[in-house]
Request: fold
Amino acid sequence: MPVPVPGPNPLDRALLSFDGPQQPVVTLALDFAGPPPAPSAFRQRITERAPALPMFRDTPASKLRMEHTDAADSAALDRETDRISQLPFDLTGGVPPWDVRLIAGPGSFRVCLRAHHGFLDGVGATHVAAALLSDTSAEGARLHLPAAPTARALVRSLHDLARTLAGPRPWTPPPAPGPAPSRRTTGRDVPLTVLRHLADARGVTVNEVALAALGMALARLRREHRTTGAGRDVVATVAVSTRTPQERHLPGNRLGVHRLVLPHRAGTLDESIAAVARQTGAVRDSRQRDAFRSLLENRATPQTAARAYRAALRAHVTPLVVSSVTVPGGLTAFGAPMSSAALLLNVFEGFPAYVSFTRTPDLVRCSAAADADRGSLLAVPDHWAELLSSGRRTDGGPDQ
Reply:
């Protein structure tokens, strides 16, 4: 019996069609500053709490997937996270495709909640993690009350999809020079105070600053790796959550996407921020989030919509997907406070490359995921962090 589709959502259907050895697996990695729990205590907590969540209640106790490994240091921790983020799920047994893994390090530990992307999105994963792990009541990322979409937002959303499928092909990150990278994921942390200072000084959001720095990091990448497509626009397909409070613990994807032309020709961070803010402001002002929700709830042509999403989930059509997620403070597990987090996506041949910004109370982590054919993208988190540090020094902002 195949795994059931969570609902009529065409994006779920499109993602679940990747059902072979290479799958779009989402991994939410949460780091905790304290001694790791005993594996038996970890297993007991998950076993007791999972049945209370709607998305997991169909998982028999005998099928709960929980694993424990040890890591000697932070490098070993990241290597193990990279490894497990690529592992596929068995989609033939009728069991929801998720698992949770404890990686114990010296004086700290990491919990990785994994799920097939067709079964769960990143914002949903933050709420699941809080429900499964937290010592006390805790919440995941911000949820959004539904509202009626504007006609302008619906037109913009459909135009974005049409341009993605039929418009000029954007620039694609090239392979890294030299031997193929040993990993598919990289990440770098920057203190939230650095981005907050830059954002407040310009009247924009932290996420807009992060996206602007990404645009400049990709511009640096283009200069370092000249390719035949160097004149093309750098386009990010930016994920936007539509998950409502009533959908907090429901399976499936509650998100839409909009096209963002990253300002790779901007000469300064200020120019890049202004170019990003103009585009993201238009998305907010037109209430495009509500249009995304309406399109996902369309029951009239689910098969046609699923085919369109599946066509868009090709690397030459959508070279880069970008998402942002916030894991709020207050999450403590087994007596240890959360210290940082990362949202990862398994990227394989023919699937879009990925960059995420995962925000916690003190840090923002930029993570990149790419296969060997687009391995140069794995250098982006380092470039991104350096650009933000330089902007902070120019502004006279807080020290890192």
In short: The mean pLDDT is 89. The chain has eleven helices and twelve strands.
